[in-house]
Structure to design on (498 residues):
């Protein structure tokens, strides 16, 4: 009581010093969320009387806060170091409650003192408050919140996602093949800059000039969301219009934005839902295939085993994607639509040699190491099988017969053959390809949580925000799994008692 009376009469500087002492002993402010969720009788009465606080006590309890260091920032006075767990818990509430800015988040916590206690913020005592604490003095400023979001290492948030995947594996029934089939897709994110606002006065030369970086975000990049290779109507390539000509410089070939993209690997468990296995954020000018290896490495590490099947769109139809899912131990494969890219689809003989257009196996003439590809690899150059024979003519009269016959260049990896040989019309391939709905459903949840239009102005903050969105999606999924298991268990228990 004496301490509370003294704090209420301390000047502002004295209260800041006292608050700094509370921050040093944050671990003593209250027990862990998991312990409080198991023993709610230890929760103060004024907290138990607040439904919102008790709801988030249950929602946030499954998170493994031991993976998070107690300090993510260490500032010299007068800025107090903010403990990481309360800050991250507050960010999860911000996403779950659709709060757009840090200033509104801080006001939301001020309006809900019990929630502030549950999140773990050390509270400054006050005799003038009905709860005995001064929430306004206990919370850092909104600028400190924003600073934390852009400076906290993303590896810490990935650790939260690690624990969510582990908890989901433990919560789902043992017979469920969690993570056996996965899908990968990307979601565009619009930067908070005037160049993305069609109502802002920006000339087209400046709006879509990748060399003119927007002042509002130094990390965003110009990228294309969708592009059409074929035109219709007056712009069809099959004829040239004789009236109303359209200048080539004004033809719209795609939808362009300044921003980022979030790549997600998700898995679908029939009857239980869709779950996020890995997430990564890059600038918008990065191609989709650049997400493949980082996300697959994170997925394999979290599952403890490489997924057996994968579903991707045509942008991932590359030899290394197919080779990554090939294994002698199982019959896994990647279900990817064939992307011709101006080349025909090859067939191969039993030795793996490609057939020419006449149906003859083309022998390997030479190999070389390709360094221009995203993944350096050995490439083989295959030549005409009749070039060294006594044949006087090509069976199909190929146009290159006079110059030594046809040649082709293909990677020697088995993935290059699998890409051409995969039976995309088989029931197994179609069943795996349907797994792509997992990422579509996850991305729709991310859109609902505000991933498309973040009110943030740098890449690190947006990357951390996207990872936290994935944590929220998995948290919600975990509670749905647990609630469903309870509904399944209760009828069986009732029947056994009867």
């Amino acid at each position: 009581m004496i301490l509370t009376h003294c704090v209420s009469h301390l000047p502002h500087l004295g209260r800041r010093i006292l608050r700094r002492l509370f921050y040093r002993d944050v671990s003593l402010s209250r027990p862990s969320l998991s312990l409080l969720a198991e023993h709610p009788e230890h929760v103060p009465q004024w907290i138990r009387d607040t439904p919102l606080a008790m709801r988030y006590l249950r929602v946030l309890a499954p998170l493994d806060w031991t993976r998070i260091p107690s300090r993510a920032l260490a500032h010299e006075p007068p800025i107090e170091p903010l403990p990481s767990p309360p800050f991250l818990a507050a960010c999860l509430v911000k996403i779950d409650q659709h709060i757009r800015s840090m200033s509104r988040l801080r006001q939301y916590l001020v309006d809900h003192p019990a929630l502030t206690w549950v999140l773990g913020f050390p509270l400054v005592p006050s005799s003038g408050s009905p709860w005995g604490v001064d929430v306004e003095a206990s919370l850092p400023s909104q600028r400190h919140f924003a600073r934390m979001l852009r400076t906290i290492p993303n590896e810490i948030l990935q650790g939260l996602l690690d624990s969510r995947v582990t908890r989901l594996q433990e919560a789902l029934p043992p017979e469920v093949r969690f993570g056996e089939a996965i899908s990968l897709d990307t979601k565009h994110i619009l930067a908070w800059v005037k160049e993305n606002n069609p109502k802002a006065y920006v000339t087209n030369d400046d709006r879509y000039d990748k060399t003119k970086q927007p002042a509002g975000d130094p990390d965003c990049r110009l990228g294309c969301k969708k592009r059409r290779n074929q035109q219709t109507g007056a712009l069809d390539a099959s004829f040239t219009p004789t009236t109303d000509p359209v200048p080539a410089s004004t033809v719209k070939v795609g939808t362009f934005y300044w921003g980022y993209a979030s790549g997600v690997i998700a898995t679908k468990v029939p009857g239980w839902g869709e779950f996020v296995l890995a997430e990564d954020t890059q600038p918008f000018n990065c191609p989709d295939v650049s997400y493949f290896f980082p996300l697959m490495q994170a997925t394999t590490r979290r599952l403890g085993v490489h997924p057996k099947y994968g579903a991707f769109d045509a942008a991932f139809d590359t030899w290394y994607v197919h080779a990554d899912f090939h294994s002698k131990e199982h019959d896994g494969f990647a279900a990817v639509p064939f992307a011709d890219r101006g080349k025909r689809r090859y067939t191969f003989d039993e030795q793996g040699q490609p057939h020419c257009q006449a149906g003859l196996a083309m022998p390997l003439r030479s190999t070389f190491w390709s360094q221009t590809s995203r993944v350096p690899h050995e490439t083989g150059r295959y030549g005409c099988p009749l070039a060294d024979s006594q044949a006087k003519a090509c069976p199909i009269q190929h146009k290159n017969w006079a110059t030594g016959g046809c040649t082709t260049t293909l990677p020697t990896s088995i993935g290059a053959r699998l890409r051409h040989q995969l039976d995309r019309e088989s029931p197994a391939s179609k069943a795996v390809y349907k797994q792509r709905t997992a990422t579509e459903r996850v991305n729709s949840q991310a859109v609902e949580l505000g991933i498309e239009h973040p009110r943030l102005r740098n890449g690190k903050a947006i990357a951390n925000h996207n990872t936290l969105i994935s944590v929220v999606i998995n948290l919600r999924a975990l509670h749905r799994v647990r609630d469903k298991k309870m509904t399944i268990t209760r009828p069986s228990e009732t029947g056994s008692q009867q």
User: Anything to note?
Assistant: Residues 1-29, 72-81, 229-240 have pLDDT under 50 and may be disordered. The longest strand covers residues 254-269. The chain has 18 helices and eleven strands. Residues 269 and 295 are 19 Å apart (CA to CA).
